[in-house]
Amino acid sequence: MLCRVADSLFWMSRYIERAENTVRLVDVTHQTLLESEHSSEEVAFKNWIPTLETLGDLARYNELYEERSSRTVTEFLTFSSSNSSSVYSCIASARENARMIRDQISTEMWEALNKLYLFVKRADADTICRESDFAFFEKVKDFSHLFRGIIESTFPHDLGYDYVVCGREIERAIKTCQILGTKQFMPSMVDSPDDALDAAQYAAILRSSTGFEAFHHEHGSDLDSLPVRQFLLLSRIFPRSALYCIQRLQLAMHRISGCPTTYYSNEAERLTGKLVANLNYAVASDLNGVKGDSLIREIQVDLEEIATAFSLQYMGVAIYDPVAKAVAV
Questions:
Q1: Is 39 exposed, middle or buried (0-12, 13-18, 19+ CB in 10 A)?
Q2: What share of the chain is helix, strand, coil (3-state, %, to 5)?
Q3: Burial class (CB in 10 A: 0-12, 13-18, 19+), 96
Q4: Looking at the predicted structure, is the pLDDT value of residue 266 above 90?
Q5: Which pLDDT value is given to residue 267?
Q6: DSSP label at 287?
């Protein structure tokens, strides 16, 4: 397979996953604000800071906007062409990558992605941002789910498919860690811990990861730090947990190289195997408190190193991601 085709498949998949995760964060934050009935825009804006901090977008947002409000944050994260990590920018980048390999993907894939791009491009951004149009957010999520389903049913599960899987699983694992990492930026009652507030915040984190119901099936109603971290980092059955994603990434990488998973043939495989082993042997004490916060950041850094090594191995160049942010804050 040509390097440019592999690169486009990899990034098409990453950008669609990134767009869906960002729109889910925006959607859940709006729903949380609606349920909490904040009395002022200033108080409401504070609830957006964890999202902006975790995505590494706070400084860029401050550069672009003087007005600090839910409306401007929604515009920045969803529609701004000046923000390379906005939903619109990611979908446009995914479409451009698909356009460059139009002859390599199915007609159904191209049509679904093009429809998503046109839907977001033609949307009334001002009304959606001002009125928190949940139907718009749901539509974007539905389109991304449809696109993945079309890939599964119309795209040959050969070498090209494995590049799609690698891009998706790297991005999904990073975003799960970022969503989990928002907790350290959320408001807390230091002097008198508020269990109800913590539970509400962890519920929002789980909904952002589409894991709220799955978590309750596995852990019941224990919305506490350790079980939530165990679920989102180490679950072997939840498709968006970090370990589940990284194990799927490892299998796809080894299918590409033809090397058994008990060995490694390149640096990307070595780093991935090391990360899988670290998570497989993690214990509860590795997930709690400051040590757990450090582990979440380390996983993100490791995944970016894996992506770089993967790009060097198969695309022949160092990775170029205009949306990438420093995660080791």
A1: exposed
A2: 75, 0, 25
A3: middle
A4: yes
A5: 95
A6: T
| CA–CA distance, 187 with 166 (Å, rounded to integer) | 35
Here the tokens at position 309 are 């090594």
Residue 275, token pair as written in the block: 């990360």
Contact 266, 272 (CB under 8 A): no
Report which residue type is found at 238.
F
In whole angstroms, give the CA distance from residue 251 to residue 257: 10
Distance CA 243, CA 232 (A): 8
Tokens 């780093």 belong to which residue? 271
What does residue 68 show for φ and ψ, rounded to 5 degrees?
-100, 105
CB 250 within 8 A of CB 272: yes
DSSP symbols for 175-241: HHHHHHHGGGGS---SSS--HHHHHHHHHHHHHHTT-HHHHHHHHTT--SHHHHHHHHHH-SS-TTS
Ranges assigned E (strand) in the chain = none
CB 83 within 8 A of CB 77: yes
The residue type found at 198 is D
Nearest CA-CA partner of 207 in 22, 24, 18: 24
Residues 6+ apart with CB under 8 A from 296: 177, 180, 181, 233
Q: Determine the pLDDT at residue 327.
A: 37
- Residue 191: is its pLDDT beyond 60? no
Rounded distance between C-alpha atoms, residue 307 and residue 37, angstroms: 41
Nearest to 303, CA basis, from 271, 280, 281, 325: 271
Residue with the two structure tokens 């790297």: 170
Burial class (CB in 10 A: 0-12, 13-18, 19+), 261: middle
Tell me what the pLDDT averaged over the chain comes to. Answer: 88
